[in-house]
Inverse folding.
């Protein structure tokens, strides 16, 4: 029988021990836990962006969004590269995107091209922009942030990977193709 939470805390000198608690979970529970963390990430991101928009306007919100996405994905890519012993190809960039904390509960997307030399990805549903529409707000200019995200990850995986095309709001788009990027090696 698994020890209780209280027993685990006591055994650890009355300090929290997340790793010990996670070790008690099944694989399915761990996957559910990761999904909750992903939803938590998007809750923080969307509340942050909504509050900045309300206080300072969409233009400032877009600037702060770009600052975030210029840094965070690169840090995540660096950590994943070490953790999963990733290489330096486009497949490794795609793996970072797939494993990202922001991937599961955020925008829905698909690869429209996937070779050793070229990857093209598009977002088919963007909950954040759809929510802005529901609130009566204009679409957020997320092209700078989206561009920064791809560049940040590519630079960590392999500086020779180039982001050759990016489209995103405020670019015109249909409702099933919000934004996309093409990377080449």
């Amino acid at each position: 029988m698994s020890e209780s939470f209280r027993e685990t805390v006591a055994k650890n000198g009355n300090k929290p021990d997340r790793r010990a608690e996670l070790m008690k979970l099944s694989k399915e529970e761990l996957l559910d836990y990761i999904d909750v963390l992903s939803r938590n990430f998007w809750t923080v991101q969307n509340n942050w962006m909504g509050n900045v928009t309300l206080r300072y306007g969409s233009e400032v919100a877009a600037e702060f969004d770009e600052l975030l996405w210029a840094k965070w994905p690169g840090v995540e890519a660096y950590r994943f590269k070490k953790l999963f012993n990733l290489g330096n190809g486009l497949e490794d960039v795609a793996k970072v995107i797939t494993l990202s904390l922001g991937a599961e509960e955020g925008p829905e997307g698909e690869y429209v091209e996937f070779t050793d030399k070229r990857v093209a990805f598009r977002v088919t549903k963007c909950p954040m922009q759809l929510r802005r529409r529901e609130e009566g707000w204009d679409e957020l200019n997320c092209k700078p942030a989206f561009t920064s995200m791809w560049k940040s990850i590519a630079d960590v995986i392999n500086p020779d990977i180039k982001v050759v095309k990016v489209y995103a709001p405020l670019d015109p788009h249909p409702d099933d193709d919000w934004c996309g990027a093409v990377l080449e090696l």
Summary: The mean pLDDT is 92. Helices lie at 5-11, 18-23, 27-56, 58-83, 90-99, 127-134, 143-157.
